[in-house]
Amino acid sequence: MVLGLSPAVFIISLSAILSLALTLVHKFATDQVLMRELKKELKNLQQKMRESRDNPDKVKEISSKLNATNLKYMKQSFRPMFITIIPFILIFNVLRKIYAGVIVIPFPFTLPLLGDSLGWLGTYFIASIIFTTVFRKLFKVV
Q1: Where in the chain are the domains?
Q2: Whole-number Cα distances in Å, 130 to 16, 108, 112, 136, 138
Q3: I want to staple 122 with a disulfide (CB 3.0 to 4.6 A). Which of 60, 66, 104, 118 is the partner?
Q4: Is 2 a residue whose pLDDT tops 80?
């Protein structure tokens, strides 16, 4: 037990805190207006590409625009990753040492690929997907 909390409560709470922190870093470390514009442009170019399948020259032209736009989008997306990667590596290393071999969420049945329980990483992963989705919608982060 960490802080007197069961492993499941601690991992899920930590997941919520880290998801919130990551969402806020993402919001303030990227140009959200530019990200929205690039996302719209990518969608638009993908649609044009589907419509122009029969014209190889047009597909090539659209593809180069798509790649350039995607590169701009990725450059924006990498900024928050560079800010958070070292703290996350340190946190995950500590969690791995504390919860190695600990069953965090036992199942009353066996699931394919998962088995009959979730460890700390599986619990964190599932909880973080849920929390990150909620926080991104709440804070309108692209």
Answers
A1: 7-138
A2: 9, 22, 21, 10, 12
A3: 118
A4: no
